[in-house]
Write a structure and sequence with these properties.
This is Inner-membrane translocator. It is found in: Cell membrane. Keywords: Cell membrane, Membrane, Transmembrane, Transmembrane helix. With 542 residues, the chain is mainly α. 68% of the residues lie in helices and 0% in strands. The chain has helices spanning 13-34, 37-41, 45-51, 53-72, 77-98, 100-125, 134-147, 151-161, 168-194, 199-227, 243-265, 271-290, 292-295, 310-318, 326-350, 353-363, 365-370, 375-401, 411-424, 429-453, 470-484, 493-499.
Length: 542
């Protein structure tokens, strides 16, 4: 008797479209109501329930799930576009107008999503375990934080009082040295790409890199001395219009630091690379803590300017936003654009020859090198690309917070970003964005809300209050996730097959004589391939 297995019918595309739109409408309504303080005050007990931190965190999580469903479900294209555009461009800003913390949370999620996308290139694609990634984030933040704040005037005053022998000639020497050594590095790099590197080319490249650093230092010092007479006019830092220039400079600064860090360490791999990148990340933090003249040490830098866009401010005012919300709405729009650009760059790189080279290095360095992949150059490109994403997000983070200090760039931040990549799925771009959203919501909304909601419950001991055990709960979630779904929430197909390779193997032992393994005699062979007797032809031929 043969049993017929019947599969549960799946929802059709029209049904999924209707369900997606309905879910979007319902969760949008709940989000807008739960963040409108005046309306909640008129709703009595229902409003009190919606103010509960756990309920509020649940509403935010369900609303953000709209974007996930729009990506996963095979609904009509217009419905998916409606949900994505409506959620990001209309509903979230409207709710953020009533509750600024929601707008701040959205920016924070997108900043960490961009950081996770950058680290995904280094770890997920190239297979280089980097535990000091937050160092590049710090470089971008301090690049703008120093010049976009009153700290810049303090630096100019110091160099005006201590110029030494620096003058216009020093500036010329610095510019020439930087240009010559940078051109030399480019020439040596192209030369070694065609032929095998020798000891002479290796040491020449290292010497040229030292020359670039020296040239940049001389150039910057000369500029500071020459600008010193303008210190009083720059008491609040550079004009906010320079924000756009430094947005580009933060990318190049972080990429340059990524190359300089990568040059001496990328010959290592595995655990050794992880330890040395961890140490270099701590070096950047300690430097920020001790270079008081530039970073103000542990006191931090404040206030830091954001870009001033008059037409955008006028549009925000017309939409009902308060003047103190203009900069947040602007940064929200800017981060949204940057996420789109970073995601586009990631997808194009993944499908390019460089992306395939990264994957080859991750799978087997020896085989990749044997196939002609230049290991050092390819790894440096991965480091520099990931660092550039972190640099631009660091600058936006500094403008959003209006304050930075070394405590913002501790080791735990690097570990948190790495956990976003692993939790979402290494090598998967939608996965790491989802991982960033989940981890950020857990750390900033769900776990703090759970602790706040249970703080006054008498039967829960203070030592067992979830507010005191946030790190324990978060750690338990990560452990459970790695045990139950090690490939991540939205895994890359290649990564999923690697982790479940044994599960995908078919058992064909019944077709051969594998039973001979348990007896003293008999030949072991696979049916149709190996001969049963010595005189038989291979492959099952007659």
């Amino acid at each position: 008797m043969t049993a017929t297995l019947q599969q549960k019918p799946r929802a059709s595309a029209p049904d999924r479209t209707i369900l997606l739109v309905l879910f979007f409408i319902v969760t949008s309504a709940f989000l807008l109501v739960s963040h409108n303080g005046d309306l909640l005050g008129q709703m009595g007990p229902v409003g009190t329930a919606l103010k509960n931190p756990i309920v509020e965190a649940l509403m935010v999580s369900l609303f953000l799930a709209n974007i996930l469903f729009a990506y996963l479900w095979k609904a009509a294209p217009w419905a998916r576009a409606l949900v994505g555009v409506g959620s990001l461009l209309f509903v979230l800003p409207a709710a953020g107008r009533e509750d600024t913390s929601l707008l701040d949370l959205s920016i924070q999620i997108m900043i960490f999503a961009a950081l996770a996308l950058g680290l995904n290139i280094v770890v997920g694609l190239a297979g280089l375990l980097d535990l000091g990634y937050v160092a590049f984030f710090a470089v971008g933040a301090y690049t703008w934080g120093i010049v976009g704040s009153p700290r810049f005037a303090e630096i100019l005053k110091y160099f005006g009082e201590n110029p030494g022998g620096t003058n216009a000639g020093t500036l010329a020497i610095g510019l020439v040295l930087t240009a010559v050594t940078a051109a030399s590095m480019l020439y040596i790099s192209r030369l070694t790409a065609r032929t095998a590197p020798t000891a002479a080319t290796t040491w020449s490249f290292r010497l040229a890199s030292v020359g670039v650093v020296a040239g940049v230092i001389l150039t910057v010092r000369a500029l500071l001395v020459l600008l010193a007479p303008q210190a009083d006019g720059l008491a609040n830092g550079l004009n906010a219009g320079f924000f756009w220039l430094f947005l580009a400079l933060s990318i190049f600064a972080a990429a340059a630091v990524g190359v300089l860090i990568g040059l001496p360490v990328l010959k290592l791999k595995g655990d050794y690379l992880a330890i040395i990148t961890l140490g270099l990340g701590e070096v950047i933090r300690v430097l920020a803590n001790n270079l008081d003249l530039y970073s103000a040490g542990s006191q931090g830098i404040t206030p830091i300017k954001s870009a001033s866009v008059p037409w955008f401010d006028a549009a925000a005012g017309a939409l009902g936003f308060a003047p103190d919300q203009y900069y947040l709405l602007f940064l929200y729009a800017l981060v949204l654009v940057m996420i789109g650009l970073i995601l586009t760059v990631n997808v194009r790189l993944d499908r390019s020859r460089i992306g395939r080279a990264w994957i080859a290095i991750r799978d087997d360095e020896v085989a990749a090198q044997a196939m002609g992949v230049p290991l050092m150059q390819t790894k440096l490109i991965a480091f520099a690309t990931g660092a550039s994403f972190a640099g631009v997000m660091g600058m936006i983070f500094a403008a959003k917070q209006q304050f930075i200090s070394p405590e913002s760039f501790v080791l735990n931040q690097s570990i948190a970003i790495l956990s976003m990549v692993i939790l979402g799925g290494m090598g998967s771009f939608p996965g790491v964005i989802l991982g960033a959203a989940v981890v950020t919501l857990l750390n900033l909304r769900i776990l703090p809300g759970l602790g706040e909601a249970t703080a006054n419950i008498s039967w829960i001991p203070q030592q067992a209050n979830p507010g005191q055990l946030q790190r324990l709960i978060f750690g338990a979630i990560l452990v459970a996730m790695m045990l139950l779904r090690p490939e991540g929430l939205l895994p890359n197909r290649r990564r999923q097959l690697e982790l479940h390779h044994d599960d995908n193997q078919e058992d064909e032992s019944a077709q051969g004589n594998a039973g001979a393994l348990g007896t003293a005699t008999g030949d072991v062979y696979s049916a149709g391939y190996a001969p049963a007797k010595e005189d038989d032809k291979a492959g099952g031929s007659r």
